[in-house]
């Protein structure tokens, strides 16, 4: 492990220029988005994309999200229907990923889609990712910038610790605002709950049973069982976001030795939100898990989080952390 890598550069013109040069040279660079820090590489170069998989130790069947600067760029890569275009118009730039048919002639490396005929694509809002897209002039494949299966990064230091010696550069622009990964939508189905909720995405529509999410205490995975590919959003691997120690959910109080993460009226070693605010809790979630993981406590417990709105995404990530 190289003790000097990755370098951490504060967001600014110099950092973006250096990151863009690394991207054009086929390297990966960690950059914040409004959700979590991403590990970005040129989505049109298979060797660059292979570098992402290698740095993360990610199973090669798990495809990546491609980031583009705007809807026009997305339409050159994926085939939009009216529903997808409506969602894109309403929520881009922002924490929404659309799974759409990929245009075979768009030049996206097949390693990005892991051989699927669909692609996950989004237009991020964060200034750093937008600046890197503009400066590099490339569509950027970017999964969360952490070792595969471990807790997602919401701070530059999380990235540096998880990928030490494996990547050259992290652009540091502070904590990511949303704190959980983008909502992934395919057709009228939410494949991964995230900052944008079902009620915001599909107001007035009652959803089918495609996504079973987050009744606290329900241990099941939440993928549509009838999906053609078996795994629709392969990131729905059960163990994900996992700290290195046991995690107990829906706990009313700490047991001996536990690092207790509270919420609302239930206090703890620390709290996701003393006010019981779910948006604040989402922003704090992975940071709290990182602290709990780094603490001396042999186990982690988390207070119940209401499974409504972005609370669905919080419960989804917590259940995977506990799996
Ligand atoms: O907020 C986010 O989405 C962050 C930031 C960096 O943009 N990225 C992120 O990427 O969470 P990643 O690679 O950790 O998650 C990608 C998810 C996985 O669940 C993957 O299986 C799913 O997207 N995915 C990618 N391509 C897909 C496809 N063609 N069909 C279905 N799911 C797909
Ligand atoms: Mg991830």
From TrEMBL:
<dbReference type="GO" id="GO:0006450">
    <property type="term" value="P:regulation of translational fidelity"/>
</dbReference>
<feature type="binding site">
    <location>
        <position position="241"/>
    </location>
    <ligand>
        <name>ATP</name>
    </ligand>
</feature>
<feature type="binding site">
    <location>
        <position position="152"/>
    </location>
    <ligand>
        <name>ATP</name>
    </ligand>
</feature>
<dbReference type="GO" id="GO:0061710">
    <property type="term" value="F:L-threonylcarbamoyladenylate synthase"/>
</dbReference>
<feature type="domain" description="YrdC-like">
    <location>
        <begin position="13"/>
        <end position="196"/>
    </location>
</feature>
<keyword id="KW-0067">ATP-binding</keyword>
<feature type="binding site">
    <location>
        <position position="118"/>
    </location>
    <ligand>
        <name>ATP</name>
    </ligand>
</feature>
<keyword id="KW-0548">Nucleotidyltransferase</keyword>
<feature type="binding site">
    <location>
        <position position="62"/>
    </location>
    <ligand>
        <name>ATP</name>
    </ligand>
</feature>
<dbReference type="GO" id="GO:0005524">
    <property type="term" value="F:ATP binding"/>
</dbReference>
<dbReference type="GO" id="GO:0005737">
    <property type="term" value="C:cytoplasm"/>
</dbReference>
<feature type="binding site">
    <location>
        <position position="67"/>
    </location>
    <ligand>
        <name>L-threonine</name>
    </ligand>
</feature>
<dbReference type="InterPro" id="IPR050156">
    <property type="entry name" value="TC-AMP_synthase_SUA5"/>
</dbReference>
<dbReference type="Pfam" id="PF01300">
    <property type="entry name" value="Sua5_yciO_yrdC"/>
</dbReference>
<dbReference type="Pfam" id="PF03481">
    <property type="entry name" value="Sua5_C"/>
</dbReference>
<dbReference type="InterPro" id="IPR017945">
    <property type="entry name" value="DHBP_synth_RibB-like_a/b_dom"/>
</dbReference>
<feature type="binding site">
    <location>
        <position position="142"/>
    </location>
    <ligand>
        <name>L-threonine</name>
    </ligand>
</feature>
<dbReference type="InterPro" id="IPR038385">
    <property type="entry name" value="Sua5/YwlC_C"/>
</dbReference>
<comment type="function">
    <text>Required for the formation of a threonylcarbamoyl group on adenosine at position 37 (t(6)A37) in tRNAs that read codons beginning with adenine.</text>
</comment>
<dbReference type="InterPro" id="IPR005145">
    <property type="entry name" value="Sua5_C"/>
</dbReference>
<comment type="similarity">
    <text>Belongs to the SUA5 family.</text>
</comment>
<protein>
    <recommendedName>
        <fullName>Threonylcarbamoyl-AMP synthase</fullName>
        <ecNumber>2.7.7.87</ecNumber>
    </recommendedName>
</protein>
<dbReference type="InterPro" id="IPR006070">
    <property type="entry name" value="Sua5-like_dom"/>
</dbReference>
<feature type="binding site">
    <location>
        <position position="58"/>
    </location>
    <ligand>
        <name>ATP</name>
    </ligand>
</feature>
<feature type="binding site">
    <location>
        <position position="122"/>
    </location>
    <ligand>
        <name>L-threonine</name>
    </ligand>
</feature>
<dbReference type="GO" id="GO:0008033">
    <property type="term" value="P:tRNA processing"/>
</dbReference>
<keyword id="KW-0819">tRNA processing</keyword>
<keyword id="KW-0963">Cytoplasm</keyword>
<feature type="binding site">
    <location>
        <position position="182"/>
    </location>
    <ligand>
        <name>L-threonine</name>
    </ligand>
</feature>
<keyword id="KW-0808">Transferase</keyword>
<feature type="binding site">
    <location>
        <position position="144"/>
    </location>
    <ligand>
        <name>ATP</name>
    </ligand>
</feature>
<dbReference type="InterPro" id="IPR010923">
    <property type="entry name" value="T(6)A37_SUA5"/>
</dbReference>
<feature type="binding site">
    <location>
        <position position="192"/>
    </location>
    <ligand>
        <name>ATP</name>
    </ligand>
</feature>
<keyword id="KW-0547">Nucleotide-binding</keyword>
<dbReference type="GO" id="GO:0000049">
    <property type="term" value="F:tRNA binding"/>
</dbReference>
<dbReference type="GO" id="GO:0003725">
    <property type="term" value="F:double-stranded RNA binding"/>
</dbReference>
<feature type="binding site">
    <location>
        <position position="35"/>
    </location>
    <ligand>
        <name>L-threonine</name>
    </ligand>
</feature>
């Amino acid at each position: 492990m190289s003790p000097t890598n990755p370098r951490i550069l504060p967001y600014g013109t110099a950092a973006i220029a250096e990151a863009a040069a690394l991207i054009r040279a086929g390297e990966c660079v960690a950059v914040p988005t409004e959700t979590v820090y991403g590990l970005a590489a040129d989505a049109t170069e298979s060797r660059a994309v292979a570098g992402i998989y290698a740095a993360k130790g990610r199973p090669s069947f798990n495809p990546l999200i491609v980031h583009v600067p705007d809807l026009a760029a997305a339409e050159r890569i994926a085939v939009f229907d009216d529903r997808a275009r409506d969602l894109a118009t309403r929520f881009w730039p922002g924490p929404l990923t659309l799974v759409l048919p990929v245009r075979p002639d768009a030049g996206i490396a097949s390693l990005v889609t892991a051989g699927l005929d669909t692609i996950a694509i989004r237009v991020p809002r964060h200034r750093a990712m937008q600046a890197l897209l503009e400066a590099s002039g490339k569509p950027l494949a970017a999964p969360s910038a952490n070792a595969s299966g471990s807790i997602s990064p919401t701070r530059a230091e999380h990235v540096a610790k998880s990928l030490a010696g494996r990547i050259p550069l992290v652009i540091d622009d502070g904590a990511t605002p949303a704190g959980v990964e983008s909502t992934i939508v395919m057709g009228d189905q939410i494949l991964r709950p995230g900052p944008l909720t079902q009620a915001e995405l599909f107001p007035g529509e009652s959803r089918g049973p495609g996504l079973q999410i987050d009744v606290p205490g329900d241990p099941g995975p939440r993928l549509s069982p009838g999906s053609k590919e078996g795994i629709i959003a392969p990131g729905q691997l059960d163990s994900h976001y996992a700290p290195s120690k046991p995690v107990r959910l829906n706990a009313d109080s700490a047991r001996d030795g536990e690092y207790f993460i509270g919420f609302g009226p239930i206090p703890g070693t620390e709290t996701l939100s003393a006010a019981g605010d779910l948006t604040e809790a989402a922003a704090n979630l992975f940071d709290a898990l990182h602290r709990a993981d780094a603490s001396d406590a042999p186990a982690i417990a988390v207070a119940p989080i209401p499974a409504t709105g972005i609370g669905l995404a919080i419960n989804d990530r917590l259940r995977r952390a506990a799996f």
